[in-house]
Amino acid sequence: MKSMKKWITAAAAVAAASMALAGCAGGTSVTGGAEVKASDEDVTIRISWWGSDTRVQITEDAIKAFEKEHSNINVETTYNDWSGYWDKLATENAGKNAPDVMQMDELYLASYASQGSLLDLDKTSEYLKLDGMDESLKDMGKVDGTQYAAPISSTAFGVVINNDVVEKLGLTVPDTSAWTWDDLIAFAKQVVQASNGETVGIAPLNNGMTLQLWARQQGENLFTDGKVSISEDALASYLQMAYDWTHGDDPIAGTPDHQAEQASGTLDQSDFATNKQAMIFTQSTQISTYAKAAGTDNMTLVPMPNDDPSNKYGYLKPGMYWAVSSQSKHPAEAAMLVDYLLNNEEVGKTLGTDRGIPSNNSIREILAETSTGTDKQALDFPAQIEDTLGDAPSITPNGASDLDKIIARYNQKVMFGEQSAADAAKAMISELNTAIASA
Amino acid sequence: MSAASEFAVLLKNRGKAKDKATDTKPALGFLAPWLIGAVCLTFVPMVISLYLSLTKYNMLTSPKFVGLQNYATLLQDTRYLQSLKVTFSYVIISVPLQLIAALALAVVLDRGMRGLTFYRSAFYLPSMLGGSVAIAVLWKMVFGSDGLFNQALGLFGLDVTQSWIANTATANGTLMVLHIWQFGSPMVIFLAGLRQIPRELYEAASVDGAGKWRQFLSITLPMLSPIIFFNLVMSIINSFQTFTQAFVVSGGTGGPNDATLFYTLYLYMQGFGSMKMGYAAAMAWILVIIVAVLTVINFALSKYWVHYDD
Fold first, then answer.
1. Which of A101, A335, B130, B166 could be disulfide-bonded to A260 (CB atoms 3.0-4.6 Å)?
2. Closest Cα to residue A284, out of A234, A222, A213?
3. Beta partners for A101?
4. Which CATH number goes with the domain that contains A185?
5. Are residues A287 and A395 in the same domain?
6. What value does the mean pLDDT of chain B take?
């Protein structure tokens, strides 16, 4: 009994200590409505991003140049891969030590902005100019009318064709300037047949941006006013693709198992990067990444298939954003850094198209003049698909940041025949709505 | 664990005799590294997570108290139920198989063959590597469609091109094999246990005409039962916490089609992916309860089959 009492006392002590600790962690430094002013004294700010080794290299080069110009500002850098980045960023925000400048994605922008984690960039307009980019692109950095993020780049979606693979099979690429979905499927089938099933034609669409495009091709939108607005029919036809393309004679995407294996692999090991697939749906700027991985420049970037030529379904999606933390003690310096990364022409050349096509129009023009090969194709692509570009869609609402994973999961359910496309569409819409409502 | 029990002894003895009391303070001083670690890194976070499990917490804004809502939602979450199914089938199948493999190998090695130390180390090696990311990546390649496993089958004239990792029916199975492959650490413990069994028992039994199998059933198993029990309990607890392998093999998705959606993986996805920390904390506490209940049941059942000498 006596030891029991002691344990209770100990437990109470632990509880008390934890309250005290929790109390300590509460100290915040929200800039709120305070005026944003650059300091003359030495300041240290931190910037964080996700991405490859190349990106790390060139971003650090750019930051060194920034530090040289602003001798009182010291910039610390942290970087991570995509999924590790979001784990860490959320934890840092919870611990009130978020980086001053963070790379942001469209999927997460509304989540972070609506929870008060990001600074209204209009407050830093003295240091950060956003007038170098198109208005429609700039608007995609707004959440509920407030400019919470600065688009770094834009990206369009298209189809990349590996001509080496096609030529080796003795095939010719059809006219893609106005091709339909049937055209694409027919060509993919040729690839599979000519290679006796050794080469995959193309993998089905399975992420947020392609679902958005699919919805827009049917005259709908994925989200409207922070709610799911795609119809069950449109979503079902999208999910059905995963089944149709992996079943029947000569399935153009191979077996469901094969697609599932691809989904869990890395880009470098993917069929397309290893010359075992003829075409891929991807963001336009990824063409150079794939070209490098596959070891061939013989690739062409062409528009998405579209059944209704009058439909303005396309849009330029902000590839990434820079955002400033609302916890930042030095918002002015953070804004200066963002401005430098976005608008400085020399830095623009250093950074190139690694983060997508630069949002700053004059930098884009400079790059277009000097670039060659696949880089040039990516830079020219927006002009090529100009006729299909419509209004920018609403960004992914708070609570739906898992969109890509949710799509991939329902895609697999349909692909493995566990659920019909119609049932999956219904379930997926309800899951998304619940996630948004409970956020 | 031993530090905890020593600490309890210290508390009990405090103030009993004067000379003992003077011993307590330095002892506590020596225990401080463990104490501080246990309090700050284990007890306090546990209490906080218990509180968080009663809240809605997205890490960006302060937690909001919602009572037992998270626990109620869990019961209706079909993916949560799927994660329970995946984890339980993994534990139920791989734990006994691993222990059987470990025991069988230990018995063979205990016969005192040449190069015993080499074999012991060789068999132990997977246990040290098995939990690592590198092995999980290797596993993914071995059981992939062009993997070593299919190539090995090819040598026997079997032309298999399916991926064992990406197939919903076999994905969890490959992870079970990975778990069983790490039989080294229970094996080493079994070996130590086998050495403790008095040789006279075997001699007496063979004089009485008992064969090898009979000796194994009537001497080895009962004498080894405390060790088997220890391995069983530890193994069950560890298997419930399987994360790395499933995370790497499925690319963090629990796929294909949630076939490798392990409990802790789903917990992680909810906490960090969907930023539902409160929900994840509730899951964590249910896992604690599941493991605690199973351990209690294990201890209760142990009196029917575990024999202690003294």
1. B166
2. A213
3. A47, A324
4. 3.40.190.10
5. yes
6. 88
Q: Between chains, do B163 and A261 touch, taking CB under 8 Å as contact?
A: yes
A126 has pLDDT over 70: yes
Q: What is the ipTM of this complex?
A: 0.78
Strand partners, A224: A227
Instruction: Specify if A5 maps to a domain.
Output: no
A158 phi, psi to nearest 5 deg: -155, -165
Domain count, chain A: 2
Can you give the residue ranges of every domain in chain B? 2-52, 70-305
pLDDT at B273: 83
Residue A356's identity, in one-letter code, is G
Residues A141 and A289 in one domain: no
**A295 and A245 in one domain?**
yes
Phi, psi dihedral angles at A246 (to 5 degrees):
-115, 10
Is the domain of A284 the same as that of A426? yes
Q: Quick check: A353 and A367 in contact, CB under 8 A? A: yes
- Helices of type H across A72-207: 82-94, 106-114, 135-139, 163-168, 181-194
Q: Does A188 lie in the same domain as A236? A: yes
Query: How large a percentage of chain B has pLDDT more than 70?
Result: 92
Interface contact flag, B253 A413, Cβ < 8 Å: no
Structure tokens at B235: 């193994």
Please answer yes or no on whether A257 and B144 come within 8 Å at the CB atom. no
In a domain, A24, yes or no: no
- Give CA–CA dist A229/A218, Å, rounded: 12
Q: Which residue type sits at B22? A: T
Higher pLDDT, B218 or B23: B218
Residues 6+ apart with CB under 8 A from B273: A86, A401, A402, A405
Query: How many Å apart are CA A298 and CA A300, to the nearest integer?
Result: 7
Burial of A41 (0-12, 13-18, 19+ CB in 10 A): exposed
Regarding whether A423 and A327 lie in a shared domain, the answer is no
Task: Please report, as a single letter, which amino acid is at residue B172.
Answer: N
Q: Is residue A26 part of a domain?
A: no
* Residue that is written with structure tokens 């605690």 in the block: B292
Whether residue A147 sits in one domain with residue A131:
yes
Q: Quick one: pLDDT at residue A6? A: 52
A258 and A303 share one domain: yes
For chain A, say whether B166 makes contact (Cβ under 8 Å): yes
Please give, rounded to a whole number of angstroms, the shortest distance from the CA of A14 to a CA of chain B. Answer: 6
**Distance between CA atoms of A381 and A365, rounded to whole angstroms?**
13
A33 in any annotated domain: no
Distances (CA, A) of B275 to A106, A274, A286, A419: 16, 35, 28, 27
CB contact under 8 A, A93 and B60: yes
Query: Domain range holding A430?
Result: 157-316+391-437
pLDDT digits (tens, 9 = 90+) for B268-295: 999 988 889 999 999 999 999 999 999 9
Cα A108–chain centre separation: 9
* Alpha-carbon distance B24 to nearest alpha carbon in chain A (angstroms): 16
Pick the CATH number of B70-305 from 1.10.3720.10, 1.10.1760.20, 3.30.830.10, 1.10.10.10: 1.10.3720.10
Residue A95's closest chain B neighbor by CA? B59
pLDDT higher at A374 or B145: A374
pLDDT at position B77: 92
